[in-house]
Design goal:
164 residues; mainly alpha; globular
Length: 164
């Protein structure tokens, strides 16, 4: 089907799908689904979704052997500094992150996942992966494999186009 589209039609289809995904994320569709299915019933389930976005950002930085300060987290999350500080405070109060002094610059305070934060993030990732698995369950294996190969490539190439 998509292979019979012109190049412009293929690009338009991809763009439309990305916009639909972004809208779903802005509507917090996964958060509402997790609430309906009872996956938000532990103590961390009462935290705003933005706290988990912060955990995702901290983990992604750690995967790149980097660390984040509150200010850097604000930039990654595209929120202002006071909002990032409030999110960090909520995560600190829930023992999901801890502050760690930067060994290279003692004025900087780094945000680091705790074991509880890592466990909470794994639960969220498992939930999201389950949703993706359910959404693609009827897909042929080759289609799922193609998406797994091509979507990360699109994200990486898109990032190189949009990085400042």
């Amino acid at each position: 089907m998509a292979d019979k589209l012109t190049a412009d039609e293929q690009v338009a289809a991809i763009e439309g799908a990305l916009v639909a995904l972004r809208r779903a994320q802005k509507r917090r569709a996964l958060a509402r689904l997790s609430a309906r299915t009872g996956d938000r019933e532990d103590a961390t389930g009462r935290l705003p979704d933005s706290v988990f976005e912060l955990l995702d950002a901290i983990a992604a930085a750690a995967d790149r052997d980097e660390t984040l300060t509150v200010g850097e987290a604000a930039a990654v999350l595209d929120v202002d500094q006071p909002r990032a500080s409030r999110l960090a405070a909520l995560a600190l109060d829930a023992s999901l992150i801890r502050r760690q002094a930067d060994q290279r610059d003692g004025r900087r305070s780094l945000l680091v996942l705790t074991q509880a934060g890592d466990a909470a993030l794994r639960r969220i990732q498992d939930f999201r992966r389950g949703v993706v698995a359910d959404a693609t369950r009827s897909w042929p294996v080759a289609d799922r494999a193609a998406l797994a190969r091509l979507l990360p490539r699109l994200v990486a190439d898109f990032a190189t186009q949009t990085e400042e």
